[in-house]
Every structure is written in structure tokens, then in C-alpha cells.
């Protein structure tokens, strides 16, 4: 067996475990009975441990190093795989096994502690765990590279090639240009469309509309399906098996519509990746940021456009004649772009959303620079959200305790949400140079948009880095100006 | 690590793979998108191969033999595990690897060939594969034990301890007593209740009735769920995760009702097994026959009783007022016990069902005694069904090609279906000596019946053999007389 064949054989094993874990997770999030959790956690712990044992074994490490030292012998695609494998290995290989096990246990325990703390708005009961999680993450990042700012290492975990330097530039631009603009808009945001947004909408009819959207966005039903879950998500085991969930709320119509379209963005990306990468490390979307750019593009650039509602308001009226009778397509457009300074990130609108991310980035950056400690978090949080959006949490549940990410050890993840929206805007302008997006939407030809994205971006899976992809798709490096331009254009029009 | 700990550790790995395979199979049978099959078959083949490699490794074999040679050192439960493991090992260990792989491939290919043959009623196109499957099965049985009739080895695969000698006695008793009785009843079966059975019943209302049944039968929803599939089935990964499916037909009300109750029988058995067996070879129901006895007991002895319909006809009328308005509870009882000589096993009623099994047993026995060849099958089949039920297939699709079992290499499986019904009758009479079953049904207290079965049978999982269980539950060895008595009593009453 050649070294490359050995690598493939080994990957096959890991892929089989991951395939199983993905389907078990899908099941657990969409239908598994409550009491199944005990057996499931035993079984998934076992399968995860097997992956960890393979990937930290001396044999595996030797193989990767040997491949790494002979990269010249291989083609570009395999070299990218080797580099990825080497980096993944380096990220864990220096962590002492007992520390790794302790950390996994800490993360496991912290879930319930965070949930309770959030429920009771009791930051004090979570603070100790949070500090330990932060300390471990700093330590692990330094094991990987003692000469790099730990937060830079973490940022790179979620978005290959991104550092504080680049994120600082991005968020500084938003701070300079967007914060004053948002404050301006918030003053003018007086059409609430409350009776349109929060009327009673039958779940059955909402389901019909979601099914309609799947077809309008040309989702391949033979290679995927839609279900429901508390937090909508998209999971895939291959481009031929991509599953999304949505969430139906009786008294808030936009929950299911925009969850469905958002997840359709993730799902379309995954469905359009070339199957040639299935058995390689280059399968799946390339990064969190690029993935989010696709979900946000479909959700906001398409789904919250005037052209979208001009095209689909008839279907909406057919399903909800009572609720919509005094409204026009333009009202739907405005209602779905209603801007409000809210405290909760996941409920935020397109315009204020990046403010929520900015504050989390500021905090993570200060934490890992040791400028603030976990003791300072609630007040730092509350001051920042007030600074950016002019609102202040009444308690920590609607402040520092609202997100699951930190309790799960995910630092450096949040910035990719805003980055994704900014990527989306830049891609949007590039696309408009080549195809008439508005016309395609009005002609119910979203398939043409899918095809463009497939050719320029989706098909490549993880075989190219986010930076390479942005260059390929937009013919220039990432530049936040498009995002600011897009938001200003759109919201100036809506709010004059 | 002691040998017992090593055994546990090894089993843990196998159980983790089996857990994954079970959930992947559940997904595949209930919702997976069509195009997912390719990736899934690669992944499941890999996971199955891993199990096979573990269970045929020299190391595993040595461990089992050493445990087997020192059984005196262990308690009864572990001794039963060792014996099971030893038998499972012996069944495969002498099969040359290339023959095993060829056989798996043959079975794989035969699925589609059988499907097509059935669709086109073209037995000739399937005959060659069938012959090879039979030859392999005979060969494999002889590898295991060259001094035993191969068919006896196969019968034992599906029902521990059963041989042709015992099945002959069972089926001879049916032939002698039941065949003439069935012919008698068929002559008198003139109330068809066609407009009750085959009216239009909305799927939504049928679903409501199935949900109602789940609660009436005290199904533990925290440890299970119901979905739909083409062929109803029950799968479980532990007593705390037991899932059943049912099948809704718009124009045949009894499909969903009796699929649901039948599967509830399997599911209740699995839910009531002690969790202490989870990590052992003694988890799950003990045999096909005992499992079928539980599904048949709930379906027929409870679900098709007069008391059942006297208790639940009100709910039925509430859901289907139009369809039921000219009928009484007794009509539902009679309609659900309508007897008809049919050609298709899976559509047969409770009374004629064992005739279908008898003929399959006759044929399997003759095949493996080499009294007939695959060339003779269609005519032997047609003659036998005519002899037992007085009907003759027009083509092989409704004759010898109707079942999937043989194309899948399952010989010796069919008899457990009839055996299960016979076990059920014997258990039913034993139960009636201790509790008033009819009263429990009328008081909507099926929970009391569940509890009786849990204490006497379910809790033990596979820790006892079918024969031990029958003795424990009914205080005597299995005797087919109860089955004949039960069917005669019930159908004499219905058909005078």
C-alpha cells in the first residue's frame, strides 16, 4: 500500500465514524425520544473517542509527517489535504491526554450549568466554568503555536487565514460607517407592521409555504429533505444527502420563512459541491464564513428583496388571505426588513445584526488579550450594547448569558457570522455584474443564481481557501466596503 | 484486564457499530432522501465489515474459546453470554472468507433480481440465484455442523432449540385439526363488511386513531416514537429507545390499526426488557418466535377481540362518524376478523395465516432434504396453496415470488411466524388463569396486561431461551393444542 492509499484507508474509517455521528446527531436533534439520550451519549462518546485515538496515534502522526515532508510528490489537491491533516494534527497533538479529557468533561458539564444560569439569569453560577474554558482554550492555542496570539489561532480555526489584524480592519470600518447610520435608521423606524408580522398564521399553511420555497429555490428533494427543530440547522453526509430544518411559530410568520431560506442557502451550497471530494478532506463547505455568506445571501440578498416579495406575494396571499388582505408586496418587503434595536442576537434584523457580532468580537479580543476578566463581562457587555444600539439588558439572560457558544468552548466563531454577511454583499455585487439578479428573481429562476454560485464557488468544496474563493468569485480580495454600501443603499431606500 | 473485562470492551465496540447501523437503517427506512443510498451503502458496508473483522479475528476467537473452556468460573448469566458468543462464532468461523464475500455479493445482487422477477412474474430469471443461495446456505450449515440436517441448523438460527422434529409435530397438528376447520369456515364466510373495511378513511384521522392506540396500550412515548414506512417494523437501540412504524392506506382502515397494534406488541416487549442487559449479549427479545408471539398477542388476542371493539368503537365513531354510522361494535369485531382464502401471506387473516406458513415450511423442508429442486418450486407452491386453501395463483408474483425472505437467504425464518401465534395462544390461556383479560381490556387497563407480561416474560430479554420462557410463563412446555383451541373457539363463535 502506498502512503497515499494508507491515508485514504485511514480516512475511510474516520469518515464512516463521522457519517454515523452525523446521522445520530440529526436524529437526536429532530426526533429521538427523550430517554434515548443516555445510551446515545455512551455510544457517541465511544465513536468520538475512536476518531480521537486514530488521529492522535503515533502511526497516524508518522504518516502525516512523512506525507508532509514529501509534498512535492503529489498534486495540488492532495497537497491541500496533507496540509489540512497536518494542521488538524498539530492542533491536538501537543495537548496532554488528561487535559483533553478534563476539558471535554468541563465542556460537557458546562452545558447544563450555562442552561441553568441563563434560565435563572445567574451569571455568577457560570463564571467559574467560563474562566476554566477560556484558560484551557488559551493553553491549547499556545500548545499549537506559542508565538502567535492565542485568539488569532482560534480565529483561524473557524475561518482559515483570518487574524485579529484583518478582523480589526473589518470591524473598525463597521464602527466608523455603520454605527452612526444604524442609529439614524433606528430613529426613523416607525412602521412596525406588527399586525402583519405577529398575526396568527396556521402552522399547516406555513409548512405549505416552506415546501413552496424549497421548490422555488430549486432544492433537490431527491438529495435532501426538510424537518423541524428548536434551532434550525443544516446537516449533510454528502452532496446527495443534505438536510435542513426550520422552525414554525404560530404568531411570527418570518421565523419559518427566513429560517427555511437561510438553511436553503447552506443546503444549496452543500448540494452543489462536487461529489469527487466525498472521500477526501476537501468535502463540505470550506469555512464558517463562506457558509454563512451563502445562507445570508439567500436569506437577505434574495429573500428580503423587493423583487422577491413582488414575485411571491401572490402565493402568500393565497395561503393567508385574511392576514394579508390590506397589504401589498411592498409592505411584505418593508415588514421583513423592519429594523429594531433588540437585545437578542438571534432575533436581530439584517441591519443591526453586525452590531451584535461586533460587541462579541470586542469582548473575545479583550478577554484573550487579558485586558478584561470574566468578572468584568456583564458590565462590559451591557456598556457595549448600549454604545452600539442604545439599549441595555435588564438582566444577564438577555445579555452576556444569551448564547450557547462560549459554554461550548467556541471562541473565534462569532466574527464569522458578520464576515459571512460581508462576503455575501461582495459576492452579490460581483454577481450583478454578470447576471441580472433582480430579473432572475422576478422570473422565478433562482436556479440560474444557483448555477452561477455552483460554477464560481460551490463546486469547489473545501479544495480552496476562503481567500482563494473570494478572489475567484469577486476578482478582488475581501473588502468590507461592499457590505456597508449594500446596507446603506438598501436601508436608505426603505427608511428614506 | 481480566478476560471478562476484555470481552466487555470488545462488545462495547461491536455495540457502538450496531447502534450506528440501527439508526442508519431506521433513517433509511423512514425518511432518507433517495440519492443518499450510494453513500449509505458504502458507509454501512464499512461498518459491517468492521464488525465481521472483529468477530472473526484470531484474537476474538481465542478469547471466546478460553472463556468457553472456563465457564465454571462465571455466573449463569455470563455463561449464557459465552455460549451465545461461542455459537455465533462457530456459525461463521469455518466459512472461507472468499465464500463469505461471494455470498454477501450474491445476496446483494439477488435483491434487485428478485424485485424485477416479482414485478414481471418471471420466476425463471430468479431461479438461478435462488439455487445458489440455497446451496450456500446448505454449505454454511454443514461447515457449522456436518452431522446435523442443515435445515435444523437454520431453524435454530431463528428459534433457539427448534428442529424439524418439533416443527413437524406442530404443523402436523395444524394439518390434522385446522385445515378441515378452515375449509369449513371459508364456506360460511359470507359477511364481507366491504363498505366498512374499504371505505374512504382520511389519513389524518387514521393518524389520530393510531396516536390514541399508543396511549391506550400504554406505550412509553419518552422512550419511543411512531413513524411511517412501506413495510411496518419496530427497531430499538435500547429499552429506552424503541421505535415503530405503521402504514396508512386511504381505502383500507385495518392496515394502520393492526400494523400499529402489531408493532406495539414488538415495541412493548422491547421497552419492558431490563436495562441491565444493555451492555451484554442478552439485550433485546430472545427469539423471532417469542417476539412474534408478543406482536400477535397484542394484535389478535387483544386487538381483534370483541371486548376491544366494545371499548374503543366510540372513539372510532367519533373520528369516522360517516363511515361507521350504520354499524355496532360487534360489526367492527366481525369485520376485523373477516376470513378469506387469499393468495398473499401478508394480507391473510388470523385464521388462514398459518396455512401460508405451513406451505412455506413444507417447501423449505423438501428443498433442504433435496426432495425437490428450484425447478419444481412454482408447481409445488401452487399445488400446496390449493390443497390448504382451495385457491391457485394466476402467476408466480402471487405465488412463489411474493416474499422477500428467500432472496435474502432467510431459510428457517417463516415457521417462527406461525410458532409465534401458537405461543401467543398458550400465553393467553395462562394469563387468563391469573388475570381477567377481558375485564382489563374493557376497563382500558392494558397496562395491567403489559405488567403481567413484563414480570413473566419481557424483563428477561435474551437471558432465557424460548423454551425456558414458555415454561416460566405457562408452566408447561409449548403445546400447539392451545392455538388450535383458541382459533376454533374464536371462529366458531363468529361463524357459528
From TrEMBL, chains A, B:
<keyword id="KW-0645">Protease</keyword>
<dbReference type="InterPro" id="IPR001333">
    <property type="entry name" value="Peptidase_M32_Taq"/>
</dbReference>
<feature type="binding site">
    <location>
        <position position="292"/>
    </location>
    <ligand>
        <name>Zn(2+)</name>
    </ligand>
</feature>
<protein>
    <recommendedName>
        <fullName>Metal-dependent carboxypeptidase</fullName>
        <ecNumber>3.4.17.19</ecNumber>
    </recommendedName>
</protein>
<keyword id="KW-0121">Carboxypeptidase</keyword>
<feature type="binding site">
    <location>
        <position position="262"/>
    </location>
    <ligand>
        <name>Zn(2+)</name>
    </ligand>
</feature>
<comment type="similarity">
    <text>Belongs to the peptidase M32 family.</text>
</comment>
<dbReference type="GO" id="GO:0046872">
    <property type="term" value="F:metal ion binding"/>
</dbReference>
<feature type="binding site">
    <location>
        <position position="266"/>
    </location>
    <ligand>
        <name>Zn(2+)</name>
    </ligand>
</feature>
<dbReference type="GO" id="GO:0004181">
    <property type="term" value="F:metallocarboxypeptidase activity"/>
</dbReference>
<dbReference type="Pfam" id="PF02074">
    <property type="entry name" value="Peptidase_M32"/>
</dbReference>
<keyword id="KW-0378">Hydrolase</keyword>
<keyword id="KW-0862">Zinc</keyword>
<dbReference type="GO" id="GO:0006508">
    <property type="term" value="P:proteolysis"/>
</dbReference>
<comment type="function">
    <text>Broad specificity carboxypetidase that releases amino acids sequentially from the C-terminus, including neutral, aromatic, polar and basic residues.</text>
</comment>
<keyword id="KW-0482">Metalloprotease</keyword>
<keyword id="KW-0479">Metal-binding</keyword>
<feature type="active site" description="Proton donor/acceptor">
    <location>
        <position position="263"/>
    </location>
</feature>
